[in-house]
C-alpha cells in the first residue's frame, strides 16, 4: 500500500497510525525531503507493506504544469509497484493544484486508488469530503490520521482490494486473479457501472485486427463471445485490469475468423454502428498513410455522437524520423477538432506502446463518468460570467450536472444565451474540471418568472 500526496497533508501521520508506532518522521514544514520508507504492517490479521512516498513533491511546488518534472523517480517507482495507492488530501485546504496533479497521474494508473481526506477530526467536518469526488478517483474516505478516526474503515477498504497472496507472490494465476479483483473500487470502472464498451474503428488495413488480437492475445485475458445487436455482429468480452471490457463488433477481427474485403464505404457504416453501441472509440490510423479524408469524417462522426476517442497511430515501427514529424503535424492539422484527445503511437504488430492503452482508457472512463458537485459547477460559472458577461444582460442563474456519460450540464438562464457564449462556458467548465477530451453537453432552460 503506497501513501501518496502533496506535502503536509498528513501522509507520515497516517503511516504512523497504520503502523501503530512512530516510525515515520512527522515534519512541521511542507516539503522536507524524506527517503522512501517501507514498513511492515498488519490489519485484521493480514500482513502488508506500507510505503510512504514522502518525497513525491519537492519544496516550493505550486502549479501542476511542471508536475512531470517534479515527480521524483523513486516515488513514482514505489507507487507503480504498489497493489493499492492511498492518496491523502487535506480537508481544510480543499483541492489544490498539486492535488490535481497527483490525482491526474493516479487516474492513469491501472490499479485501485483510494482517496483519504485527512484532518476530518470530528463528525462536523465530514461534509468536507465530498468536494474531493472531483478528483475523479471515487468516493473519498474521511479520516483523522492524528486521532485515528476513520482509519479502520479506510484499512478495511484497502484489505478489500489487496490481492489474496502477499505482495511478491510469483504464481501468475494468483496475480492475474488479483488484477481482475482489483477493479471493484468505488467510482472506478466495474463498480456500480455497466460494462464499458469499446469499439475499434478505422480504415481497412489500418491494423484493427492486429491490434485486437494483440489485446486479447494476453494469456491472462479471459475472452467470451457475445452476440451483438445486428445479425452478424459479434462482441468480445475481455477481462482486463479495468474489469471486463466489451469490444464491440469484433466479428471480422478475431483470429481465423476474418470476413474481410470490406469496402471503405461499408466499413464506415459498420464502424458508425459499432460506435453507437460504444462508450469509447479507438480510432486506428495507419501512420504510413497519414490522416485521410475518411479518417477525418469518421472522427467527426464519432465526436458528434458524443463518444470519446483515443487515437492510435499504428505502424509507428515503419516510420523514419522525418515521417514521424510529418504525421504529428498532419494530426494537429486534420484532427484539430478533437482537442486534447490522446494520441498513442503504437505498433500493433510488436505490441510496442500498447501498455499505455489501458491507463488511457481508465482516464477517459473516469472523466466520462465524473460527477461534479453542484457548488463547484456554480462557482466556475459565476467566475466565468464575472470575467466575461454575456451580452444583453443574459445570465446563467444556476446550474447542475444533470447527467454523466458524457457530462451534461443544465444551465438555468434568464434568457437565451448566444452559441458563442455557451462555447465559452463549456470551455471554462472543461478547463476547471479537467474534462480533457470528453465531449461535454450543455442544456439551457429558461427559468420561468425571470
Ligand atoms: P506529510 O508531510 O504529508 O506526510 O504530512 P505530516 O504527516 O507531516 O503532517 C503535516 C501536518 O498535519 C502535521 O503538523 C500533522 O500534525 C498535521 N496532521 C496530520 N494529520 C492530521 C489530522 O488528522 N488532523 C489534524 N488536525 N492535523 C493533522
Ligand atoms: P485491419 O484491416 O484494420 O483489420 O488491418 P489488419 O490488422 O489486417 O492489418 C493490415 C496489415 O497491416 C497486416 O498485414 C498487418 O500485419 C499490418 N500491420 C498491422 N499493424 C502493424 C504495425 O503496427 N506495424 C506493421 N509494420 N504492420 C502492421
Helices, strands, pairings?
Elements: E1 2-4, H1 11-19, E2 37-43, E3 46-52, H2 67-70, H3 73-80, E4 85-90, H4 97-107, E5 113-118, E6 141-142, H5 151-161, H6 172-181, E7 196-202, H7 208-217, E8 223-227, E9 234-240, E10 243-248, H8 264-276, E11 280-286, H9 293-304, E12 309-314, H10 321-334, E13 343-345, H11 357-369, H12 374-387, E14 396-403, E15 408-413, H13 419-432, E16 441-446
Parallel strand pairs: 1-3, 1-4, 4-5, 5-6, 7-10, 7-11, 11-12, 12-13, 15-16
Antiparallel strand pairs: 2-3, 8-9, 9-10, 14-15
Helix pairs in contact: 8-9, 12-13
The structure holds guanosine-5'-diphosphate (2 copies).
One guanosine-5'-diphosphate binds next to α1.
What does this structure look like?
- The protein is α/β, with parallel strands linked by helices and 450 residues long.
- It folds into 3 domains: 2-161, Rossmann fold, CATH 3.40.50.300; 196-368, P-loop containing nucleotide triphosphate hydrolases (Rossmann fold, 3-Layer(aba) Sandwich); 374-446, K homology (KH) domain (GMP Synthetase, Chain A, domain 3).
- Helices cover 32% and strands 20% of the residues.
- The strands form 3 sheets. The chain has a 7-stranded mixed beta sheet, sandwiched between helices.
- The longest helix has 14 residues, at 321-334.
- The chain binds guanosine-5'-diphosphate (2 copies).
- Residues 202, 204-210, 314-315, 317-318, 347-349 line the site of one guanosine-5'-diphosphate.
